Each structure stands twice: as C-alpha cells, then as structure tokens.
Amino acid sequence: MGASSSTEQPASAEQRELENIAASTGALPLLQKSFPNLSDPQTNAISVQTLQQCFHLCYEDPVCESQQKPESFPRLLDHLGSSIVDLFFLSEKGGINWLGFLGGYVKCCGRMSTSMSLNILLRIFAMAVKKLGLSSNLEFEPDDADCKINGSLLPSDLLLLLWMCWAMLWNARTLKSSERKGNLLLPDINHLVLSAVVACAEVDSSFDLWNCDIVGLDVQLPVGKFLNWAITTAPILSDCLTQYVNRRLQISVLAEDEAGSSESISGDMSPNASQALLLTRGRAWAISLAPRSTITEEILKLCFSADIVGTDENLLYRSSTHGKGLNRFWSNVEGYHGPLLVLISANSEDAYQDNNKARKWIIGALTQQGFENKDTFYGSSGNLYAISPIFHVFSPSGKEKNYVYSHLHPTGRVYESHPKPVGIAFGGTTTNERVFIDEDFAKLTVRHHAMDKTYQPGSLIPNQGFLPVEASISEVEVWGLGGKTAKEVQDSYKKREELFTEQRRKVDLKTFATWDDSPEKMMMDMMGDPNRVQREDR
C-alpha cells in the first residue's frame, strides 16, 4: 500500500497533512491502491514516463457533429497527459515518490474554489498548446499561490479548451479498462462558445449568431471576464479533470471485469445521429454544466449514452411524434412525478422580413416536479434556458415562486366570467407570463424579463426587445429526468388509468334481470312513442 510501503519511518507531518486532504476528497484509498501498481518495486517510485502514459489521451480521428473542427485538436490531446504530470507531480532522482504522488493529486484534484479549479484547467490547456508548438495569449505569474492568470483567449482557443474538457469526461465515462483507445464524438458546442463571446467581448447588435465562423472569429476574450462567465454559466466545467484522473487511476488498479460503471460506446457514432432531436449531446452537456443539481447525473447519462436517439424511456413527449396540442402533451406527461426538461423550437414572425431562410431558436425550462392541472402558478424550483443559437442560464431570483403554470380546459362546462389562460407557462404572472405556450402548441409568447420576478433577468432569444415576441412553434420535447423510479411510477399510473377507462366502457348485461328492465328496451320504447302514457306497476 502506498502510504505504508513508501517508507519504513513514521509518516512526516507533511505526509499526514496530504493524506488528510486526499481523504477529504474520498480518493485516498484509490491513491493507496494505484501507487504500488504504477511504481517500481526497487525504487518505490513512479517514473515520469509511466505516469504520463497513465494519463495519456489519444483519439486519432474524432467524429465531429459540427462543421467547424480545428485540425490541431487530436494532436493537442496527445500532450494532455504529459502536461498534467509536468505541472503538478514533482519528480526526484528516482522518480515520483509517495509524497510527490499525493501532492500532485492534491494540487490538481483537491478541494478548492471554482475559480482555482478553472485556473488549473487553463494552465493544463496552455501547457498542452505550448507543447504542440502553437502560440497562446495566456500568461501565468510564477510562484503565485493564487495562480493568477493574465491575457486572453480567442474563440478558437475556447473551442479547443471546451472540447478538451469534453474529451476527458467522455474518456472517463465511456472507456473500459481493457481498451487503450476508443471512439470520440465531439458535439456541436458553438452555442457555448458564442455565449462566452457575447459575455466577454464587445460585439455590436449586427453580430450574426446563426452564421458565425467560430474558428475564424478574431475577437479577444479577456481571461478575467472568461472566468466570470464560466463561474456563472458553467461552474462545474472543471469536474472533468477530477473524473478523468480518478478514472485513469482506477484503470491502473481494476481488472477488466471490475471496470466500474463505464461502458464502451458502440452505438450510432455518425455526426447526424442526434441532430434530429432538440436535445443534442452538446446542448445536454451545456445544461449539465450549470450549477450542480439533482438532475446533473441524469443529463450526463444522456450525453454519454450509446445512442441518444434511442433513449425512449427519457423522451416523454415529442410534438412531431405524439402530435401537437395540450391534450396530446398531457396524455404523455401525466403521472410523471420527477424533474422535467421542456425544450421549445420556434421562429419569430419577423424572421421572414428578409428573403433569407428562417432562423430558428430554442429555449428551455427545467421543472423539479411533474406537471399539475392548476389555474395558478406552482413549483418549488426551476431554471429557464436560452439554448440556441446562444446559451444562457436563468436561475431562480428568489423574489417570487411562479415557476410553472399548466392549465387545461375544465372538464365540466361551467361559466367563468374571467377564464384563466389555457396552456403552459414559466415565470411572470397570469396573463403576463414570461414564456407561454398556447393550448394548440402553435404559438409561443416570450415577454421581457421585467414582467418576471421568478427567474433572473436576461434575453431568452436573440435581439429581444421590450415588446412581447410571438413565434410559431416547430417542435416541443419533454425529457424526464427522474430516473427509472419516476418512469416506473408513471407506467403503473397509466396502466391503472387504462384499466379504469376500460371498465367504464363495459356494460354488464347480467345486472339487468329481464328484457323489460334492459336499457335497450327503454330506448326502443322512447323512440317508438315518447309521449305514450305508461302504466306504472305497483
């Protein structure tokens, strides 16, 4: 074991401190098991080459969903493992001893603030870029405990950085221990890059979000503003490094039949496999990078599933498949008591003013509970999302709790002097909802954030003004994120409702003793002479 076999002498104060820090992350047992497997028994140390090979990441020909693919990305991944080792794991003459192994892990994967973990990602990225022979505008102050960074990023640099994080997470969650190489699918994440560009750079209103060349875009993103954007929009981005390092150390320890929960991807790897759905891998990953919640793991399962198109148990409703309208929607989501993700694709009416093709945009809403038929707002929490062509997260403001509104037509025909709107809404107030879907799922209304005190302010769609925007809905998707338990509860609810419906349709003729008592004879007598005086038997 690493701690006991690394030295015959009592543990030093430094070693005990590092072991306590590693234990606080839950990784100390893994480190103690992996150190003997990686180290040389004679020197009781790990050679630099061995540790670099342990963290080495290689994908020769990644499959890319986006048409914008920097050719240098596969070669950048070749330098990832050596960059991690050179930056954090100090080597002595005999190699990396137990103390250096512990210290390196704590430096890159220990408990730290979000800003510090993002700084570490940038340091690894800058080192890999330097090893690749490319230039970088990032500058790091030497011997600085806070690891201060100066400089800026280009949008193409940010694309490489995000893809590097995705590749580490993909490798950690999909590669089996028996495999040295596997397939890599790079999602389309232009919406994430554009989100950072708009937040960090000075762009005018004429900036075309739909036809933007990310790779060739020449704008500087100051690293300070980028960190602020990442902390707000993608605070758990840096978790990919910890998951990658832990997974690589597990592979060095575990046998093939003990490879954990990772599964090798063997489904449809074509670039257009998930493009038919609104929830692509890139969009699902962007949602999962938002502040950690109970649905983060369920979203990540969709990102790294063998075939996101085949995840029928999670896709509860799709308007192009199940039909448009509130009734069709309700028949598919009723009885589901768990978090739900609603995605809406639409295009505003003024999109046809030019002769150009209509420009569609996608917005989303996350609810922490199932839908209920109410004429008032309800809910405990949720988020709104601008998803495409640019990504933003609008979390709860804490001022109001008008998270969800879902109201169907009353079953009984009762006169209402002031009928409540029939449809689905998120945020705002009744008749002034921030997002409202009509009962036919034909029209979507998006209002200015001034009408809403439930969610954070900001534009849900590009170039949104103060006036309400009415748009034509092209697609609606609802994804269940409550896991297998919520789906099983809904399935049992549907079976029970079908049984009750079937029972109501049946008429048991045995309950009628004779023909004279049957409803058929009663109907025939009424049709024959409804005004005929009948003698009452007493």
TrEMBL record:
<dbReference type="InterPro" id="IPR006571">
    <property type="entry name" value="TLDc_dom"/>
</dbReference>
<dbReference type="Pfam" id="PF07534">
    <property type="entry name" value="TLD"/>
</dbReference>
<feature type="domain" description="TLDc">
    <location>
        <begin position="286"/>
        <end position="482"/>
    </location>
</feature>
<protein>
    <recommendedName>
        <fullName>TLDc domain-containing protein</fullName>
    </recommendedName>
</protein>
